[in-house]
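Incident log, support desk, overnight shift.

02:14 A customer reports that sequence design results differ from what the structure should imply. Their input is reproduced verbatim below. On-call engineer (initials T.W.) acknowledged and began investigating.
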């Protein structure tokens, strides 16, 4: 099938590459000429395991093309994916200007019927707006062409996006048209062979499904962080509690790991966007607001531990930081807890020595060159001369360090662990002070 994808960002590039891999003829359109040329050279703008060889292989095979020529893209595909960003507006609601701009572009150049697929995460009612936009442009052109707007939200996890796309646990299609459903089934047939994964529903339900899924996962995280904070005050160990409740199949172990808060491109903005959607229809989403508030507060935990350990005197202190990305297996630092910590440390006069396996260039892009930030080549280099170690991201490279080396390099033998990677008793045996999230004590209570 001939497919066009507008937007070569995280979602668009992964989806396009995976569709090309199974044999579809895919054209990717983006307004960023530098990104398009880099992709043609095999330079991938994001880090995602398995994505680079997938893109290169299908580009070389001719199944995957990159262009800034919107007219060519519209003319190419019977199916037109909209996969551009929907960043939060000033009030937290989703900004649809890029989605509607693509809709207008498709309507401007289309010469035959199209199936327009909203792949971007968009609020309920967006398909209606896209449809109205396309109809208005066609009317201005004085042409009558059939089109359908479908909601097909993505459920990709950063760090596992290629695998999620190749082996989806569900494929949600929002449409009321049997003919469109048939075309979408044809498109996704290679991913739907082992068992039925496609769930077809009305467009508005499909749009809400994406937000409901992310908000549910964010709620689980914030709930566990709330329990972790309570565990510290009660002298309980949240890791034991997690095992106790996760063994209940009604709860399960997924997304009940306490930590220093969630970040990334989805959860923060999707919770905010659904809050705004609810408020626009006169509903007060008390639970979602609390989820957001707990997460906002949780990102202060690491700084609070550091601040308390040094009795508020952080001027000139050198803090080693392991992990910059919001989660492992990505270089994404959007809304990452590390950013909150670093900015608070700098405001207090401290210096940061940081290491991350993939996000160093992203940190350089965000913060540039500054005297109070050193991006180190290894995790051991980040320790040298540091007063304390803070762990922000649960990369595998950080899970089994040589604690003798850690203790040797640190001026103060202390680890503040935002992801509960280590066992308190083991660190105590090494003579290292250890403060996790909800591990029975905090700096203030120890």
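02:41 Re-run completed on a clean worker. Output:
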């Amino acid at each position: 099938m001939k497919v066009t994808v507008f937007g070569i960002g995280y979602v668009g590039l992964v989806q396009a590459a995976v569709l090309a891999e199974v044999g579809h003829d895919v054209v990717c359109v983006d307004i960023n000429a530098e990104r398009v040329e880099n992709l043609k050279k095999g330079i991938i703008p994001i880090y995602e395991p398995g994505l680079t060889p997938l893109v290169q292989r299908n580009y070389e095979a001719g199944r995957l093309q990159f262009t800034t020529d919107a007219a060519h893209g519209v003319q190419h595909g019977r199916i037109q994916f909209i996969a551009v960003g929907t960043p939060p507006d000033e009030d937290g609601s989703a900004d649809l200007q890029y989605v509607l701009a693509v809709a207008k572009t498709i309507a401007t150049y289309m010469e035959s019927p199209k199936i327009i697929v909203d792949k971007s995460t968009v609020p309920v009612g967006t398909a209606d707006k896209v449809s109205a936009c396309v109809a208005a442009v066609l009317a201005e052109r004085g042409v009558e062409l059939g089109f359908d707007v479908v909601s097909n939200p993505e459920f990709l996890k950063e760090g596992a996006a290629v695998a999620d796309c190749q082996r989806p646990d569900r494929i949600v299609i929002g449409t009321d048209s049997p003919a469109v459903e048939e075309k979408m089934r044809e498109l996704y047939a290679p991913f739907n062979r082992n068992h039925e994964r496609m769930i077809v529903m009305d467009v508005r339900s499909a749009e809400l499904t994406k937000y409901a899924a992310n908000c549910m996962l964010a709620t689980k995280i914030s709930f566990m962080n709330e329990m972790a904070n309570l565990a510290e005050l009660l002298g309980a160990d949240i890791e034991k509690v997690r095992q106790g409740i996760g063994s209940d199949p009604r709860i399960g172990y997924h997304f009940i790991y306490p930590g220093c808060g969630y970040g990334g491109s989805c959860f923060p903005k999707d919770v905010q966007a659904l809050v705004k959607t609810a408020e626009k229809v006169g509903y007060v989403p008390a639970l979602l607001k609390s989820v957001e508030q707990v997460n906002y507060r949780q990102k202060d935990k690491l700084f609070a531990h550091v601040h308390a350990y040094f009795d508020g005197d952080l001027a000139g202190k050198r803090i080693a930081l392991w992990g910059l990305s919001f989660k492992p297996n990505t270089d994404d630092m959007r809304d990452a807890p590390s950013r909150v910590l670093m900015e608070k440390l700098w405001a207090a006069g401290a210096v940061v020595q940081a290491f991350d396996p993939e996000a160093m260039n992203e940190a350089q892009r965000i913060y540039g060159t500054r005297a109070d930030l050193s991006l180190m080549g290894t995790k051991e280099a980040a320790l040298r001369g540091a007063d304390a170690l803070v762990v922000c991201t649960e990369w595998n490279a950080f899970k089994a360090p040589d604690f003798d080396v850690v203790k040797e390099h640190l001026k103060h033998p202390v680890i503040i662990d935002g992801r509960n990677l280590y066992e308190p008793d083991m660190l105590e045996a090494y003579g290292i002070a250890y403060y996790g999230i909800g591990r029975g004590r905090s700096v203030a209570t120890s």
